Amino acid sequence: MKKFEHFKSNLKVLITAENEDLSNEFIIGGIIDKFFVQFELGWKVLKELLSYEGQSISATGSPKMILKTSYTIFDFIDENIWLGMLKNRNDLTHIYDALAAKRLVEVILKDYIPAFIKMQTGIEEYYGIELENIK
Predict the structure, then answer these.
(1) Are 109 and 18 spatial neighbours (Cβ–Cβ below 8 Å)?
(2) CA–CA–CA angle 64, 88, 119 (5° rounding)
(3) Contact 29/101 with Cβ under 8 angstroms?
(4) What's the average pLDDT block by block, 10 residues per block, for the chain (135 residues)?
């Protein structure tokens, strides 16, 4: 599954964020941008998996509906964390001050990156070799 490969590749870079200079505004902005891409890839991977599972919501579902449906099917999705990601993703255009950006990076490092890792591991364990046959 191509999107999942992109998800894993982007995550490999995002995981290194904790080793960066978190006092540098450029670095903070880069981490937030990488998070945005990772979230987009994440919900779209879930959408493809729901389609594979025969869930009709995958045809027209919004990110919120995709996440809520995924939570009911996959035990590797924490609904509260992912809905928090969605809210932060939607609020990204309103982050104008450095303090708010730093707070978001703290949440990305503490909560969101582990959730992305859990998703990757969960998908690999749940689908295994079957992943090659999905879209």
Answers:
(1) yes
(2) 60
(3) yes
(4) 95 96 93 96 96 90 92 94 92 75 94 98 93 79
